[in-house]
């Protein structure tokens, strides 16, 4: 109990068990809230799902209407002595219950049949991941070396950084039409959008990281006879590697945010397209399942990368 | 107060016969490092600060020179110029008669900050300078292990710097600098981050290494005891602008021992140095002037401490 209170204080202490408990609660509490809203009719349920239209002409089974309107319809039918419409309290269509989403999620992995007119979630998602992967790889191949050079060679920084700063402020979607005109309508312009969205930030972020290398290490290596490429490869790059790795993790998340734009240009495709299509059909359970998939994969990748990073850079742990 | 001390102490300029003979011998040797009219001016917008003004000094082969001075006298700037990490505004540095351009492995340096490469283990750190000299990896490793044996840290060969204490890190830093086989070892307040006991140990340890290895040492410090204990000659700089105030030949015989720190010669030298530093008037780290704080008594009279 004391430990529990201490963990709420500013810079307080926590032990391992409490941290785990909080970690589990972090997932459980939102789920519980969602379940409560979905399954306990008295919590919200502002609408009524019609199960039997009764005598009212404009009602149909499966329709949703506001509770007040439904009550009016019921009294109207009672006054006219016609069959009374029946219905159950329900949430708006855009808030499916956890159970529905879970079953849509499971369905996506178990059945190979397409959901709706388009591909299945998994197919769409695999396509998205391919776009992200190539976009990020191409961006990194250019951005990482350029960023390191900007951070370590003043001339390169002066030459490159002003124009990078200029392009950084142009929103990536602005390049959409141009990318399609140049690269066609399939995957190439989508990858290009990811690259444009990531590259310019990447150069600046990595240049900054390179500049933050403890300069006394560079000076020490110089007095030991290191210079030129050997200074770069033996001191600068190993010295910034843990921070570079962390930057790449953050930038990968950045690349994901451009996916939405990328997939809506040319021939729409991928998980974003899937989500918009399913939303149009009001299959919100599929929409939520797809969103959950993105979140889970994103979080999972980041956690794996974090663990790998800690394993790779044990020397960094002591100095924060 | 200074005068009073000097009455009871011998003149610091009178060298005992053995020290005088040794001084003669050192002065016969060539200069390894020559500082020729070195001036350093820092310009910031319209502010022009003269950090060093026409410094002229020569370090003989196998000599141990300490540089002292109040803060702001440019001693750190001087050693950075010697190392080639900064350029002199005017004048030049000669290394074995040849002017130096930029940093090089002939002038090893040990910094005040811990500068071991944190991503390399101790052995790899020591290997760094050897490998930069073009020696292949296996041979470099063999030499590095010899150095580690010499500093008594061979059992830490695979440890990472953050696992070592400050004193051990500086020992490895010294070994790393020496392993690159420099002619001169430059030390920029290398021991000032260490606690007093470790510092004394490191001083003895440095002199032990210096005795055995063909190396010339230039040691910057603000600790006067350290300077007198280590040095053959002490270069005293005065601030604003940094100029040579005096070159003191330390009247202590070698090998040095901790007991010498209470000898009359030691105290005389220290009294003189303290007088010099105080006369500069700007020192902020070794002032023992009366400090009066305008503070009412905030405790019970019966609880007074003195």
TrEMBL record, chain A:
Localisation per UniProt entry: Cell membrane
Lineage: superkingdom: Bacteria
CDD domains for the chain: TM_PBP2
One Pfam family cited in the UniProt record for this chain: BPD_transp_1
Record keywords: Cell membrane, Membrane, Transmembrane, Transmembrane helix, Transport
Biological processes, Gene Ontology terms: transmembrane transport
PROSITE patterns: ABC_TM1
Residue stretches making up the ABC transmembrane type-1 domain: 125-305
Transmembrane segments: 21-44, 131-154, 166-185, 191-207, 251-275, 287-308
One Gene Ontology term, aspect cellular component: plasma membrane
Membrane topology, as annotated: Multi-pass membrane protein
Family of the protein in this entry: Belongs to the binding-protein-dependent transport system permease family.
The protein's name in its UniProt record: Nitrate ABC transporter permease
Originating organism: Acetobacter fabarum
């Amino acid at each position: 109990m004391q430990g529990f209170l201490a963990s709420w204080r500013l810079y307080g202490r926590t032990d391992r068990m409490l941290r785990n408990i909080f970690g589990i609660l972090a997932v459980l509490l939102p789920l519980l809230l969602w379940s409560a809203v979905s399954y306990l009719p008295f919590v919200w349920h502002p609408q009524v799902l019609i199960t039997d239209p009764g005598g009212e002409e404009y009602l149909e089974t499966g329709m949703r209407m506001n509770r007040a309107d439904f009550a009016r319809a019921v009294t109207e039918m009672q006054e006219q002595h016609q069959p009374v419409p029946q219905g159950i309290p329900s949430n708006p269509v855009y808030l499916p219950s956890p159970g529905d989403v879970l079953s849509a999620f499971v369905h996506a992995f178990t059945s190979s049949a397409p959901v709706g007119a388009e591909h299945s979630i998994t197919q769409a998602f695999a396509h998205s991941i391919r776009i992200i992967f190539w976009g990020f790889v191409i961006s990194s191949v250019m951005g990482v070396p350029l960023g390191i050079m900007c951070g370590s060679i003043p001339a390169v920084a002066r030459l490159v950084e002003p124009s990078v700063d200029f392009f950084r402020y142009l929103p990536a979607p602005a390049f959409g039409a141009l990318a399609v005109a140049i690269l066609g309508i399939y995957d190439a312009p989508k990858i290009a959008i990811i690259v444009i969205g990531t590259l310019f930030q990447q150069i600046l972020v990595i240049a900054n990281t390179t500049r933050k290398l403890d300069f006394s290490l560079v000076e020490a290596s110089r007095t030991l006879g290191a210079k030129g490429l050997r200074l770069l490869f033996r001191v600068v790059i190993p010295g910034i590697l843990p921070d570079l790795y962390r930057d790449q993790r953050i930038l990968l998340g950045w690349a994901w945010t451009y996916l939405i734009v990328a997939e809506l240009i040319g021939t729409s495709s991928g998980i974003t397209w899937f989500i918009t299509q399913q939303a149009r059909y009001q299959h919100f359970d599929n929409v939520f399942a797809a969103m959950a998939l993105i979140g889970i994969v994103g979080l999972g990748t980041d956690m794996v990368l974090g663990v790998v990073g800690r394993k790779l850079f044990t020397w960094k742990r002591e100095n924060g | 107060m200074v005068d009073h001390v000097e009455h009871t102490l011998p003149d610091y300029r009178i060298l005992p016969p053995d020290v005088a003979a040794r001084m003669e011998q050192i002065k016969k040797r060539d200069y390894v490092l020559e500082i020729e009219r070195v001036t350093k001016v820092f310009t910031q917008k319209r502010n022009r600060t003269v950090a060093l003004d026409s410094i002229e000094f020569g370090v003989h082969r196998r000599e141990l020179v300490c540089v002292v001075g109040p803060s702001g006298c440019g001693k750190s700037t001087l050693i950075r110029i010697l190392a080639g990490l900064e350029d002199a505004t005017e004048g030049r540095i000669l290394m074995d008669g040849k002017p130096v351009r930029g940093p090089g492995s002939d002038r090893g340096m040990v910094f005040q900050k811990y500068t071991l490469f944190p991503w390399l283990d101790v052995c790899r750190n020591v290997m760094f300078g050897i490998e930069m000299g073009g020696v292949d990896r296996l041979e470099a490793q063999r030499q590095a292990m010899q150095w580690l044996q010499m500093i008594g840290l061979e059992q830490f060969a695979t440890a990472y710097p953050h696992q070592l204490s400050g004193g051990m890190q500086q020992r490895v830093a010294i070994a790393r600098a020496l392993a690159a086989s420099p002619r001169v070892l430059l030390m920029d307040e290398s021991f000032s981050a260490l606690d007093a006991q470790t510092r004394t140990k490191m001083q003895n340890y440095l002199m032990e290494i210096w005795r055995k290895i063909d190396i010339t040492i230039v040691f910057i410090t603000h600790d006067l005891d350290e300077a007198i204990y280590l040095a053959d000659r002490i270069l005293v700089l005065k601030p604003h602008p940094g100029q040579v105030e005096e070159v003191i030949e330390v009247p202590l015989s070698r090998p040095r021992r901790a007991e010498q720190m209470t000898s009359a010669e030691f105290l005389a030298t220290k009294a003189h140095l303290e007088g010099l530093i105080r006369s500069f008037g700007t020192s902020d780290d070794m002032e023992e002037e009366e400090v009066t704080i305008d503070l009412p008594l905030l405790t019970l009279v019966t609880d007074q401490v003195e």
